[in-house]
Amino acid sequence: MDRIQNTEENYANPKTCFFHVIFKAAALAFYVLSALFFDSFVIIFVVTVLLAALDFWVVKNVSGRILVGLRWWNEINEQGESVWKFECLDQESLARMNKKDSWLFWWTLYLTAVAWVFLGIFSLIRFQADYLLVVGVCLSLSVANIVGFTKCRKDARKQIQQFASQTIASRFSSTLQSAFSVV
Amino acid sequence: MSHGDTIPLHPSSQSDIDEIESLINAAPSATVLPARPPSPPRASIPVSSSPAPPPFLPAKPATAGAPPLPPPSLGVNVASAAAAVPPGGRLQGGIGADGFGSAPNTLTEPVWDTVKRDLSRIVSNLKLVVFPNPFREDPGKALRDWDLWGPFFFIIFLGLTLSWSASVKKSEVFAVAFAVLAAGAIILTVNVLLLGGHIIFFQSLSLLGYCLFPLDIGALICMLKNNVIIKIVVVTITLAWSSWAAYPFMSAAVNPRRKALALYPVFLMYVSVGFLIIAID
């Protein structure tokens, strides 16, 4: 038990947190600083969008699972309809998730989107339509992850509530049954 | 307490007691008894080789189906292809949040497994969409496993090739090519939906992106050989190939009387990209 308390004071998954943050920071930094070094819009576009896409993939597939225990994806079922699936860990494991990890996860997710909105406003003011394209792509990737994980978290909470109410109901009925059988 | 008063044990308790007794009897050679019951499955990532996105926890899956309407707008491939990005790979063993028992190099493994799986999905989607396949089943169901990574790479590749071939205004060429293709795919999908067709937004985006593959090849050849006649021939062939690839999916999605209305804009978009390829020198 001591070991659990010790690890709760630090990040439980430092490598994952590092990767979670590095691609976001690299995309933003490259976009902002590249104007000083590169003259070519193409390089800026391709590298920034590539870093943003990598970040999207890492958040969705790796850090979402490890840091907050959530996952979302889209499936097409037999009838040809698209279904969004949300998955979460069971309640016990969710309660054991490191608080620092999940704090980092959610805050960096929101902050990146806000940062891209600001950069978009700047490029709008300067009438740079092509840079607005870059910002648009990166922003849509961040927003997609935010929406996906928020829906997943709401779904997880709903399921926990359902599970809790079911457990209470079943315990209640079994207590009633045992009370009546004794009598 | 006499023997007559003993309460019969619950069947599972009896088996537990038997287990513990057998372990105690075998103690000298046995391993140490666990101090606490085995922990429930945590953030462990079960390994699987199935193509379908597997549940996160095999013991306690918790899926919920959202309404079948198209989801909020997305970007890259991600999975969704992209989209919605592809489900991640898994790895056996505890990459738990508990801090003990976590292997230090397992972070690289799931990445590699996932990357391999995504790459193989891109290749299989490509083979399904673009290449002639007599065993192809119902085209509407064929791109069930849509992803947007493939289209993303193809659009970027086309933009880069066009930009490289251009001698002036490289940035504008790239931006225009990317914007036209991306906006064009979205508008074409909306067109099919407005015609009363049954197609899923991301599936259609994914399809239109994959059908760009022949034009990618055409642009590459045109970049290497700068002769106008060769360019026209190559672009015509690849244009026909792209349209042929897109035809079954698009026509299956709409009412037969409106097939031409759905297919004509697709053809128009590919023709305009073809002209862009020819005109760049």
Molecular structure report:
The complex is a heterodimer of chains A (183) and B (281). Chain A is 80% helix and 8% strand. With 183 residues, chain A is mainly alpha-helical. Chain A has one domain. Chain A has a two-stranded antiparallel sheet. In chain A, strand 1 and strand 2 form a beta hairpin. Chain A is elongated, with a radius of gyration of 22 Å. The N terminus of chain A is likely disordered. Chain B is globular. Chain B has a domain of 140 residues. Chain B has 281 residues and is mainly alpha-helical. The chains are: A mainly alpha (183), B mainly alpha (281). At the A-B interface, helix 1, helix 2, helix 3, strand 1 and strand 2 of A face helix 2, helix 4, helix 5 and helix 6 of B.
Tally the beta strands of chain B. Answer: 0
Which chains share the greatest interface? Answer: A-B, 65 and 68 residues
Question: How can the largest sheet of chain B be summarized?
Answer: none
By DSSP, the count of extended strands of chain A is 2
Strands ordered across the widest β-sheet of chain A: 1-2
The radius of gyration computed from the alpha-carbon positions of chain B, rounded to a whole number of angstroms, is: 28 Å
Summed over residues and divided by their number, the pLDDT of chain B gives a mean of 69
Straight-line N-to-C gap of chain B = 102 Å
Structural class of chain A: mainly alpha
Averaging pLDDT over every residue of chain A, what do you get?
83
What is the helix tally of chain A?
6
Please trace the helix and strand order of chain B, writing H or E for each element: HHHHHHHHH
Contiguous low-pLDDT stretches of chain B (5 residues minimum) are 33-108
Largest sheet of chain A: 2 strands, antiparallel
- Tally the structural domains of chain A: 1
CA-atom Rg of chain A in angstroms: 22 Å
- Shape summary of chain B: globular
The helix content of chain B is 40-55%
The number of helices of chain B is 9
Strand-residue proportion of chain B:
under 5%
Region (Disordered) (chain B): 28-68
Transmembrane segments (chain B): 148-166, 173-194, 200-221, 228-249, 261-280
Family (chain B): Belongs to the YIP1 family.
Protein name (chain B): Protein YIP
